[in-house]
């Protein structure tokens, strides 16, 4: 629990604490007194022989620049991030009567800090003959906002030692820096104690930063205490708490807070929507995500890239790939993340041809593909068996100056493995310029499983065990390779090795969402209220698919029992139970969506293909690797996953 008696770090000097301290910093420039200068505003910063056009006009007419002109020009530089022109204005200020003024130097400091030129900002700071608390706060904020949290914390200590009293804006920036500086430590909590002593702990700006800090530390109960104690709340405080729960897979809590936010009269921003869509995406809560999307439309919000990109991801990860495409087409403006979101969606669903077309469309739109773009199109080619296209994009990536990372090599190994060219895949691994990772060897191991190459599979597995000994997946795959080849003694040794090393197979579970409720199942599940109806339904389906030629593949049963018991065990895998439940509780003809926490097993894959033909419905299964679209007796993965 969050304590109100947090000690202030011993490095901090003793302070006199003033409550009710005026917390609004002095303005950096006064817009109210800016008068028309006789120049078109959009021409003021145009380059010229002296650097900036407006100075040519002044010097040509022997006019001395006024303070408000410098303020206006520096403001334009700050807003438009034109740091080069800002340096020209700075040089002009350095020769003016205002060069030693604190307010003018604060304006220069603010310009450099907001533009991310922190070295220049520090130079201005160090050369200032006088400083006020705005000076310190401006540079601390600059460090905090541009990825230099340690510098912000060090400067804060110097500020205190020089006798300056921080205000709410100073403390807000310092707390943000503490959250970024350490994943979870005492510094942030000590700063919280300092905020308490200063009387700013209930301030909405400081409180929002504390909220963000505790959510990043994963201390959600402490974050809730800070939130509940705030004297007033704004959009930022609501968004921070919602985003915190969304990041921690607390989708239900995030949705609850979103609805509470609406009831209390706050209007959601694109940050709010993005957090909710992201949370629904990670858990597959499609119906709740659709409700939030509908509310967004009714509120008249434009579909901009920031929220739109997470909405694409939400629909794609929920299995609605066509809705994801519709969102992409309706975006007011697309950035590279928008294109990558849809490319990734096509890759996950195995829509290789569509991904290739989209990638070419992206290049024609003059959007420069990055390493994520290439990874997505390579993955799509891998999942669809497009070997020639995959090689083409792998070479194109290198020609474009992008150095392939380990995951790019994984896709090529997977491509070669899918084609059955295992020797070439092994040669590719040995010749690659980087040290092969566990994921690269896993791709080869999986290819050996699909093509029943026992010897090479054992060789790849040994490399995986060495690089990633705690992952149970490769042990199970090697067991299945031995079992499918009838090498039961070798399979037993794998089982024994797992037991001796303490590696345990992750329990499989599958779930479906029906009428805003999540129904989760494990193997041999007997806890569900409809368990008897589910069992009868699967027996009915099982009889029908056997008539179509279904034969249980008992190599997927990782226990030592006789053949008959193996066949019985296979019929109570979690995805089959979830499928029977969905058939009982969804309208005929509707698409069934099932999620699974591990890779779908081979026997269930074969069974579900035939079920889709028997019931004449599309069945979409999402596992840890990809989406499987079962329709009319076939799967989009081409039986390779």
TrEMBL record:
Any one GO cellular component localisation term in the record: mitochondrion
GO MF entries: RNA binding; zinc ion binding
One family name in Pfam for this protein: PPR
Keyword Nucleus: no
InterPro entries, per database record: DYW_dom, E_motif, PPR_At4g14850-like_plant, PPR_rpt, TPR-like_helical_dom_sf
Transmembrane regions: none
Domain DYW: 549-641
Protein name as it appears in the record: DYW domain-containing protein
Lineage: Eukaryota, Viridiplantae, Streptophyta, Embryophyta, Tracheophyta
